[in-house]
Design a protein that fits this description.
It is found in: Membrane. It is a single-pass membrane protein. This protein is an alpha+beta fold. The protein has helices spanning about 15-25, 25-55, 55-75, 135-145, 160-165, 175, 205-210, 245-260, 290-295, 315-320, 320-325, 330-335, 345-350, 355-365, 370-375, 380-390, 400-410, 465-470, 475-490, 505-510, 515-520, 530-535, 540-550; strands spanning about 85, 105-110, 120, 125-130, 150, 185-190, 195-200, 220-230, 235-245, 270-280, 280-290, 325-330, 390-400, 420-425, 450-460. Among the domains are: about 55-230, Uridine Diphospho-n-acetylenolpyruvylglucosamine Reductase, domain 3, CATH 3.30.465.10; about 385-500, Alpha-Beta Plaits (2-Layer Sandwich). The two termini are about 25 Å apart.
Length: about 550
């Protein structure tokens, strides 16, 4: 058996045509994807500005009209003739890497493309009411000038409210506020029978409120959400802390950076994230909000990381390994979106020279390429290549198991850098699809409270070292082993990623009880596909669609130990 600390030894492999297509894909990206992306971004920006110029009353009126269009469309469906219901969005538009193959089978489309408006910023209630296609860039553009922000702002501009609620969303403030869905105050949902309901945690639709997160839109159509706002300041005071040692030691330093062992709340930062660059080096970053006056005091350094010519953020943070610990002030909105321009570090694979000064200065303003366009232009061969030779996965693991997770990834995949971001997983009134470990509150582990267990997102995004060394690597097997590790360690895999889970293992990882209760109570069975069916890898056959329509495809529950 291989040493737990050492990567697996693999055989060399010969390059094939698709290797060269991937290697020189940057030509297509520079001359096609980037220019078109820039035009799309500009068009979206104009649309956002036009929407912002309208009165709240007019935006709400348009919203109500669009909701009625959705209701009318749903009532046009003939369950005996039409397929299962899904949105009309093209399969390649989704930001996630999972193949949206369910749309290749027969289905009944409902167009939600008009739902991309900020309906209201309520400063008294400290709530933003938004439609599901509002993205993070759009909402921070509206709220930051008011010194307000969502409690959890996912880093990439293109991530939408709907995706973050129906699926999964996290940010460096999640150690305080939980996942994105935990910051939602109310949701407006169109159910399978056309009813429009507003669900909160304490009204008659509270079960639906708790059932929507992680359901991937399989309980109804989310058409608006009211989300918690918090007061912020103009700058983020960011401290970069270099760490060297074993992966277990890096994991402990990461935990200590935001969860003080003495429990002193004054030592808990507003933001935290970690990046592990090698099996022996990492940098932890802690941030606290700071006023403009503080940032501009003599001797303080301001770093506007949002400028197109600036070094990519993850590479800038890496300089702490040589410089030692340092502090700087970053404009808050630029800090929120610090990973957008280089898509964390995926930009290095897409454009190998994209981090060079000459490229950043001349063409950096075109970055990032839209993920949807990258997917639309990759073709079947390149898509399959990425599934086999590339990893984009998030592992949501209990904080005390982060060291074990880092060692697992090093041994099985040897992917670097790795992203670390903590989040609370709350003990809720009902057992939702994701939930803390039973009895965690009695263990008194670092970071835990009586009402929430501290988890961490270990982000694994890059080509494994074996692929970079031209060695054999079986991506499907590696992901399967990762998923089994997650199941065995009460951990979770966000569903945007490519999954190798069969139905039984899917429901071993996630809890089905409350989700299935909502499916039956709100008429989703036979109208919307199940979350497993929607997340399943590979093409969906007509037979599978018919079985789902007839509600024959039942969830496979885990065997009791």
């Amino acid at each position: 058996m291989a040493d737990v600390h050492e990567p697996l030894v693999r055989r060399k492999r010969k390059k094939v045509l698709v290797d060269y297509l991937v290697q020189f894909r940057w030509i297509l990206v520079i001359f096609v994807v980037l220019p078109i992306s820039a035009l799309i971004y500009f068009n979206i920006y104009l649309g956002d500005m036009w929407s912002a110029m309208k009165s709240e009353k007019k935006r709400q009126k348009q919203h109500d009209e669009n909701v009625q269009k959705v209701v009318k469309r749903l009532k046009q469906r003939n369950p005996k003739k039409d397929g299962l219901v899904c949105t009309a969005r093209k399969p390649w538009i989704a930001v996630g890497m999972r193949n949206v193959d369910y749309k290749r089978a027969r289905h009944f489309e409902v167009d939600l493309s008009a739902f991309r408006n900020i309906l209201e910023i309520d400063k008294e209630r400290m709530v933003a009411k938004v439609e599901p296609l509002v993205n993070m860039g759009q909402i921070t553009r509206a709220t930051c000038p008011m010194n307000l922000a969502l409690a959890v702002v996912a880093e990439l501009d293109d991530l939408t409210v709907g995706g973050l609620i129906n699926g999964y969303g996290i940010e460096g403030s999640s150690h305080l506020y939980g996942l994105f869905s935990d910051t939602v105050v109310a949701i407006e949902v169109v159910l399978a029978d056309g009813r429009v309901v507003r669900a909160t945690k304490d009204n008659e639709y509270s079960d639906l409120f708790y059932g929507i997160p992680w359901s991937q839109g399989t309980l109804g159509f989310l058409v608006s959400a009211e989300i918690k706002l918090i007061p912020i300041k103009e700058y983020m005071k960011l401290t970069y802390i270099p760490v060297k040692g074993t992966l277990k030691e890096i994991a402990q330093a990461y935990a200590d950076s935001f969860a003080p062992r003495d429990g002193d709340p004054a030592k808990v930062p507003d933001f935290v994230e970690g990046m592990v660059y090698t099996e022996s080096e990492g940098v932890m970053m802690t941030g606290v909000y700071a006023s403009k006056e503080e940032a501009k005091r003599k001797g303080n350094k301001i770093n506007s990381v949002g400028w197109w010519f600036k070094p990519w953020f993850y590479q800038h943070a890496q300089t702490a390994l040589k410089r030692g610990e340092f502090v700087e002030y970053i404009p808050t909105r630029e800090y929120y979106h610090r990973h957008t321009r280089c898509l964390y570090w995926e930009g290095k694979l897409i454009l190998p020279f994209g981090d060079q000064f000459w490229f950043r200065f001349l063409l950096g303003w075109l970055m990032p390429p839209k993920v949807s366009l990258l997917k639309a232009t990759q073709g079947e061969a390149i898509r399959n290549y990425y599934h086999d030779n590339h990893v984009i996965q998030d592992m949501l693991v209990p904080l005390y198991k982060v060291g074990d997770a880092l060692e697992f990834v090093h041994r099985e995949m040897e992917v670097y850098p790795l992203w670390l971001c903590p989040h609370r997983l709350y003990k809720l009134p009902v057992k939702t699809m994701v939930y803390p470990e039973p009895g965690f509150e009695h263990q008194h582990r670092q970071g835990d409270t009586s009402y929430a267990q501290m988890f961490t997102d270990v982000g694994v995004y890059y080509a494994p070292a074996a692929v970079l060394r031209c060695e054999e690597f079986n991506g499907a097997e590696a992901v399967h082993r990762l998923e089994q590790w997650l199941i065995e360690n009460h951990s979770y895999q966000p569903q945007y990623a490519v999954s190798e889970l069969n139905e039984k293992d899917f429901w071993r990882m996630f809890d089905a009880s409350h989700y299935e209760h909502c499916r039956r109570k709100y008429g989703a069975v036979g109208t919307f596909m199940s979350v497993y069916y929607k997340s399943k890898k590979g093409r969906k056959t007509e037979k599978e669609v018919q079985e789902a329509e007839a509600a024959i495809l039942e969830p496979a529950y885990a065997d009791e130990a």
